[in-house]
């Protein structure tokens, strides 16, 4: 079913050029009507209206010249702007003077003493129009540049997020394939079950790679599938418990972030010990009510592993920042024989 296009906001539908054109020249009509003299008000208003109508036409033609010749793209160049404004002022003065001669008796305007003042007035009007026009263009360009910069920043973050996810997924799959290889010669049926679990994980990874975040429930399903694979390998050496606060299933988390922490808990907690180890996975509200806290704890010690490149945890931290903002964090600590990996991330309002 086709979704109807969202109607743009009212401000986006307004033609601001003609709005300001009509408002500006209308205000000039009112100004000339008020200060044009108190006698024969009808004639004064008519001439003022004629002047504003001519100014509206000439300013629109001037706008077209600026656009066609590219003068509007390079800022005010007075060497070519001033002569053009003089021509506009002369045409407008002649137009208004013609209207004045039509409306008033021929002997009303005598000599040319009025001409310099009229030319100066209309030159000032068109100069003001031009300055306002270039100012509006500059503001619009600045707004567009800012919007484009934000768009490019979002695209860059998205590309970086995709690259980080592409690093995490092979890292995880190679470890899982090693688990399958270890079992395939011992129990083919169990190995086939592991392959089914791995196929489900691959499906989750491919689907989630299209999104910056996924529901916590989907991430937990992927973790359970991974642990089922490792359970076949470690058997009773791997002991897992979940403590998920009800109502958090729809919370959004970066894809494969929880999986990375669980994988590290298995590799450096369970696999590193001959007796195996325990893993506890918990999700609850943080100290701030708008924060979600996810914790993966495993028995063992927090120490640098010689076989680890640190890609998983480093990428998990970066993806948290990219997907959930600066308030998101990932911390590691050791306490009473347990290693805790804690993710804190803000929940959308």
Q: What's a concise summary of this model?
A:
This protein has nine helices and seven strands, in the order ααααααβαββαββαββ.
Task: Report what the structure shows.
- The chain is of the alpha+beta class.
- The chain is built from nine helices and seven strands; from the N terminus they run ααααααβαββαββαββ.
- The chain has a five-stranded mixed beta sheet with strand order 2-4-5-7-6.
- A hairpin with a 5-residue loop joins strand 4 (277-285) and strand 5 (291-299).
- Helix 6 (188-208) runs antiparallel to helix 7 (216-234) and helix 7 runs parallel beside helix 8 (257-270).
- The protein is rod-shaped.
- Mean pLDDT is 79; it is low at 1-5.
Structural topology:
Layout: H1 10-13, H2 16-35, H3 41-68, H4 78-103, H5 114-184, H6 188-208, E1 214-215, H7 216-234, E2 238-244, E3 252-253, H8 257-270, E4 277-285, E5 291-299, H9 311-324, E6 329-335, E7 338-346
Parallel strand pairs: 2-4
Antiparallel strand pairs: 1-3, 4-5, 5-7, 6-7
What's the count of strands?
A: 7
Percent helix range = 55-70%
The rounded distance between the terminal residues' Cα atoms is: 29 Å
Please state the average pLDDT score.
79
Spell out the key features of this protein.
5-stranded mixed sheet; 9 helices; two-stranded antiparallel ribbon; single chain; 349 residues; alpha+beta
